[in-house]
Amino acid sequence: MAQKEVKTIGVLTSGGDAPGMNAAIRAVVRTAIAKGLKVKGVMRGYAGLLQEEIVDMNSSSVSECINKGGTILYTARCTEFTTAEGQKKGAEICKKHGIDGMVVIGGDGSFKGAGKLSALGINTIGIPGTIDLDIACSEYTIGFDTAVNTAMNAIDKIRDTSTSHERCSIIEVMGRKAGYIALWCGIGNGAEEILLPERYDGDEQQIINRIIDARKRGKKHYIIINAEGIGHSTSMARRIEAATGIETRATILGHMQRGGSPTCKDRVYASIMGAKAVELLTEGASNRVIAYKNGQYIDIDIQEALMMKKDIDEEQYYISKILG
Ligand code: ADP
Ligand code: F6P
User: Fold this and answer.
1) Does residue 274 contact residue 25 with C-beta atoms inside 8 Å?
2) Which of 14, 59, 141, 258 could cysteine-pair with 45, CB 3.0–4.6 Å?
3) Neighbour-count burial of 296, counting CB atoms closer than 10 A to its CB (0-12 exposed, 13-18 middle, 19+ buried)
4) Pocket of ligand 2 (CB under 6 A)
5) pLDDT of amino acid 324
């Protein structure tokens, strides 16, 4: 079968935003233009697609964005697009606007939508964009590097005051289902405890015993990094204070971890992934996700990518425990 020639590429960001998404959008736009293709920006993810919020993009549409957090295309979650009717409507709108290739920047949910668009005749490529690092096929996701550095710097500051007041501090970082941000900060901040959704057994008494032992050994602070998926940081702080007699405070870092100027790594990796997505589309590829694995950028079938499972790196987890 002859390969479909792609003439107009659409690009959208979907799900939770992540610093570095703008670098990927910029790379898609400028690579496409360099290859003589037209580019259309789809605003607000699949929600904007269904509302036909589609704008022409040129080289200057992506000026001054590489250093900015968030996404210039905005993002949204869209229940309608999870239905067969919504997906059919989305594909028809793409065709109406001449979009024959689409780049979807987002997480696993967004890739499910990308797979549907692909099945409906719109050549579609996914780029992993999430601060959670929870995309199984890729060792890198756009935004994780910035998010862990933002969280690490915040935790360093909390540690200063925690030490001055000789307190215990529970710091909740993002990651509703995935503990990678907590694990990396646990190692990077030298935390005494890390509680990951993938590993925590709920045994608070053991934590209390370790806090009491540490205080007896003369430790001035006790940093517990709690992933969002464990939650209950404030009530946990109250219980720990009551059981140990040590003043305990909870800080929930929240959405500040999703914002801010992207790190160099996030800008560079996102730029390369954006350029690669356009190259794949011009080669006639569809239903693929770009991934970073063993030092290389590769592409994988979307359904295969969605079936892969990722777990916490056991060695990293072990190291975080012995160092803390
Ligand atoms: P992420 O892409 O970060 O995993 P979500 O899970 O919120 O974020 O998914 C983003 C969007 O992708 C959803 O709001 C929805 O529009 C679309 N989506 C999610 N699951 C599906 C699905 N099974 N089929 C089609 N679209 C989906
Ligand atoms: O971007 C990823 C993430 O931060 C998850 O850790 C969290 O579960 C989710 O987004 C929360 O997103 P929101 O508050 O936008 O619903």
Assistant:
1) yes
2) 14
3) exposed
4) 16, 130-132, 174-176, 228, 258
5) 83
| Residue whose entry in the numeric block shows the structure tokens 């975080």 | 320
DSSP type of residue 70: S
How large is the average pLDDT for residues 191-214?
95
CA distance 55 to 73: 10
Q: Which ligand is nearest the CA of 229, by number? A: 2
For ligand 2, the distance from its centroid to the CA atom of residue 211, given in whole angstroms, is: 30
The DSSP bridge partners found for residue 41 are 11, 55
Torsion sign across C-alpha atoms 99, 101, 102, 108: positive
Q: Using CA atoms, how far apart are residues 114 and 304, in angstroms rounded to an integer?
A: 13
Q: Which of 17, 100, 108, 132 is catalytic?
A: 132
In the predicted structure, residue 1 carries a pLDDT above the cut 70: no
pLDDT digits (tens, 9 = 90+) for 255-272: 999 999 999 999 999 999
> Each residue of 36-82: pLDDT tens digit?
999 999 999 999 999 999 999 999 999 999 999 999 999 999 999 99
Q: Which atom of ligand 1 is nearest to the CA of 87?
A: 25
CB of 77 within 6 A of ligand 1: the answer is: yes
Angle between helices 264-282 and 144-164 (to 10 degrees): 160
Residue 5: per-residue pLDDT: 84
Residue 59 is given by DSSP the state G
Residue 249 burial by Cβ neighbours in a 10 Å radius (0-12, 13-18, 19+): middle
What's the CA-to-centroid distance between 46 and ligand 1, angstroms? 9
Average pLDDT over residues 295-322: 94
Phi, psi of 194 (to 5 degrees): -130, 135
Q: How much is the pTM?
A: 0.95
Distance 16 CA to ligand 1 centre (A): 10
Q: Check if 100 is active-site.
A: no
Instruction: Determine the residue of 49, 73, 74, 81 to mutate for testing ligand 1's pocket, defined as the one with the most ligand atoms within 8 A of the Cβ atom.
Output: 81
223-249 tens-digit pLDDT: 999 999 998 999 999 999 999 999 999
